[in-house]
Amino acid sequence: MIRYFTEDGSEDTVNARMEGCTDPRLAEVMASLVKHLHAFAKEIQLTQQEWETGIDFLTRTGKICSDERQEVILLSDVLGFSMLVDAINNRHPAGATESTVFGPFHVADAPIRSMGDSISLDGKGESCLYSGKVLDLHGEPIEGACVDVWSDNADGFYDVQQPGVQPKWNNRGRFLTGKDGAYHFVGIKPVSYPIPDDGPVGQMLEQLGRHPYRPAHMHYLITAPGFHKLVTHTFVGGDAYLQSDAVFGVKSSLIAPFEPLQGAATKWHSPFNFVLTPMDAR
Ligand code: BEZ
Ligand code: FE
Fold first, then answer.
1. Are 258 and 118 contacting, i.e. CB atoms less than 8 angstroms apart?
2. What is the pLDDT of residue 155?
3. What ranges do the domains of the chain cover?
4. 10 Å Cβ neighbour count for 64?
5. Which CATH number fits domain 77-281: 2.60.130.10, 2.60.40.10, 3.40.50.720, 3.30.1360.40?
6. Pocket around ligand 1 at a 6 A CB cut-off
7. Which site in 92, 99, 117, 271 is 20 to 30 Å from 66, CA atoms measured?
8. Mutation test residue for ligand 1: of 100, 214, 219, 233, the one with most atoms within 8 Å of CB
9. CA of residue 3 to ligand 1 center, whole Å
10. Which residue has the least CA distance to atom 2 on ligand 1?
11. How far is the CA of 248 from the centre of ligand 2 (A)?
12. What is the pTM assigned to this prediction?
């Protein structure tokens, strides 16, 4: 039967055209997307003007992207979509460290540093000793784990946001654990900072009455043979933005202690253990 487009059942008319799709997962994803997209327009009775505004917004969001800037992921982040995809794909067993959003500021192949080294190269900020262990689900140390860390500097910027201003690899480094699974390094106590808000996503946040700030955090990417990779942060307890992170990345289990160190060269100490999930446990 020939099926012409009508408002009623519009999604079925569109999805019926996918019968020739030979990739079953693609067909499933697209059929669901069409179903929800059509339901969205019907639910809110989308006007032509609003449709044009949406198209203009998405066009500007795409156009501002470059090798250095990913505004589409930023849009996904501020809509909580990145965290939802992360949650769906990281259902780890109880006891494993929770994951959170990766963010755009990781740089692959950071220098491998010696245990105890400082990653703060610009001399700014309040120094902090980070220490702990990388463990398996039974509390046994993991040898040969790579603890890749990165944070903003005391002015709230990552080195890649200020080339020529900050030293290359400022507040970044990789540390390899030994038999005891332990890591320790010196960084700074990070500060809260706004996500890039000078583009369409920033304008949208402003129109929605939302601020662009993330609570202060240290990023971690931890890998070890035989274990799932862990992408996470530790957050500075007491930060003013913990309950309103612009990208919804905070989990209570990731709020770390930052304790003052009396009479030591470093001002703060942040102890935190990471627990990885073995490959065969999920
Ligand atoms: C970050 O923490 O580096 C980040 C995460 C999501 C969007 C922007 C920045
Ligand atoms: Fe960050």
1. no
2. 97
3. 10-67, 77-281
4. 17
5. 2.60.130.10
6. 74, 77, 101, 103-105, 195, 214, 247
7. 99
8. 214
9. 46
10. 103
11. 12
12. 0.94
